[in-house]
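Note to self: the last two entries modelled the partners one at a time, which told us nothing about the interface. This time every component goes in together.
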Amino acid sequence: MPIPFHSLRLLLTALDLAHTTRCRPGRAKPSGLVLWDSSSVELGRPASSLPQMGCSSSLPDRNAGRLDGLNSENSMATDSKNIRVKLVLLGDSGVGKSCIVLRFVRGQFDPTSKVTVGASFLSQTLALEDSTIVKFEIWDTAGQERYASLAPLYYRGAAVAVVVYDITSQETFKKAQYWVKELQKHASPGIIMALVGNKGDLHEKRAVSSQDAMEYAEKNGMFFIETSAKTANNINQLFQEIAKRLPRASS
Amino acid sequence: MDSDDSVTDPEAHRPDPSLDAEATVEQMGSLTLGEAGDAAGAERPVGNGFLPADFCAVAGEIEVVEEGSPVSGDLAGPSSLGGPGACRERSGRGDALPSPSSSGYAGERGSSGGSSEIEDADDRETMLDDWSSGKRHPDEDDGSVSWRKRKKHFFILSNSGKPIYSRYGDEHKLAGFSATLQAIISFVENSGDRLKFIRAGKHQVVFLVKVPIYLVCISCTEEPHEALKRQLELIYGQMLLILTKSVNRCFEKNPKYDMTPLLRGTDAVFSSLIHAFSWNPATFLNAYTCLPLSYSTRQAASAILQDVADSGVLFALLMCKNKVVSLVGTQKASLHPDDMLLLSNFIMSSESFRTSESFSPICLPRYNPMVFLYAYVHFLDVDTYLTLLTTSSDSFYHLKDCRIRIETVLVKSNVLSEVQRSMLDGGLRVEDLPLDSSLRSRSLTTPELSSSQTGIGGPSGLWHFMYRSIYLDQYVSSEFSSPISSSSQQKRLFRAYQKLYASMHDNGTGPHKTQFRRDEDFVLLCWITQDFELYAAFDPLADKALSIKTCNRVCQWVRDLENEIFLFGASPFSW
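The predicted structure of the combined assembly is written out below.
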């Protein structure tokens, strides 16, 4: 489905107008992965000195410091076994992005559709077998067209992008491909991308074959998984797979 | 008959305003509407300005059509306003050819029996808060009988006639109907004129032109057209809140641009706003209301919000449902009551805000319709939410920190529990209006105001009031007392207030100072001074002199309680 770029651009222009200071691309650090490091904890930094990429966790020194400054457990969270990672979910509206997140974070599934506005922020920690603890900071973005122009706000500096489509809708699969292309162009290099076919419980209505999706994912260096937020099938596996692929801090 | 009930009260500008009961009764005596239930008079629209012309378009070419006159083929005829889209027979058969003489929109003639069912259903749904689930009846279109019987339609369309939003039915199926509305508007515009509204029997069609957007309301609710126009303005504002005015540029490049995808998923927002048009006084009073709290509690909330605002937050707003707990803005920035109404409607009607903290672009149309601000929204409990607005798209983590700080302080200082308690306790009750001794002695000698009657309402038959402080842009309204406990009675009172407001602010005949009006449902009393506007409803049998005295006491009571029911110290409103 072609996206009417002119309209998105215009909305983006409005956004830009709202900025008091514009972001220069050069200032964004490419790495989205944040390792908690005691040397990076800086308390009491004035808010006005927040970097442009405040919406991301791409700048470990300040963001980590600020957050840790408010959490008393920060001292124990400074070893290299703790990984904090920014993850963004993208995809057409109604494919179940919020449902995946809520299933993962709260173990809940709410069949009534709740349209996400802008983006919701949730976090969840996952302990791996090698005793690494991964804290996901998840940006669950709205799928509506009017928010498409705002996506960079949320995926800038992300270490992981989860692109979701609905296996019962070819259209959402096309939209997913649009997001993959957009991420390849504009996201941090080295971003880990996952292609997720959701609503696996509705396989009798399947419109996108696993084979096609798998081939597409392989071609684009993504890993592919089919999930069902409703039955919780593969939801934890999705995040465990992501966690396994995260680069580890060298000693 | 029409400039019936409004009198100028020369006393109103005294430094300590109080209505002089005797003098005002004298003045009002000759001006009061038929007291013994003059039904015809009471049911007339209050708007004094628009008679004798029912159809008040300024266009010279459009003929004035009186209610009930024969249907004409002219564009302005009461029944042809729908043109091809609406000129179908009531049987609702498919694509009938445009037929100027067919019965008109929603066929108000000779169908009262048949139409009542759906109109009742319409009401019932409103009461059941069905609006929250998004669009109602998406399968309908202008060919459906049920669609045409809806009491109140709202449409947004582009000036090329493309549908953008419809309260009922699928926008895309309403393309023909939209094109017809566009044709009517542009027909008048082409003659260098502007269409304000059309009256057609019971129906009013009200237009609002915000090039390249047109907004239309078709209603048979007997609300004054000024009120409907204001509702269209709010709907337009709600659209801007979601998209900003820069959406206009889409139409500059492509006049045929289809805007519906940009508003996808916002049906619940508009439904809830339209629902507010029949219960929330803020939709016509141009004011917001505060949750009653002790002065120190509100001060505690304001102090922590101020702290945060000083760190680069444009506005910090703590609200409980539609009521403000505290509001703080940076210097010189002020939040318009309309923006607060639209913002709180947007937040409360979007379920996703309740799930987790959010960071979303929103536009405050009265603050700056061209740009997005960024709103950090977090629900502290089921009804209480904190909104932090900033101009910087990168402030999420900062605002998150601010919220954590605010929440900690609010919990520690018991503000949150006080807020919950106040929600449970409710607002001012007319039963609690302090008695003054002179009135008590008098009411003892007045048989119809014996204690058995004051048991169902406040003193002297006071049922309800709303007090709007002009300088603060805030209003306070009492809880509904037992005589108006049912939702249909409350809606009737709401509509009566709405009419009262419109007639008091009518540019043609106003502004007025006082109005006393009696019909079979209520005695309504309105009193406007430089400082406040008071709207009060009494038992229909209430004594006029006592009502006026009671209004004075309500004003005194509100002044005595002002520290608890109003928010002071919010930056001065200067726009």
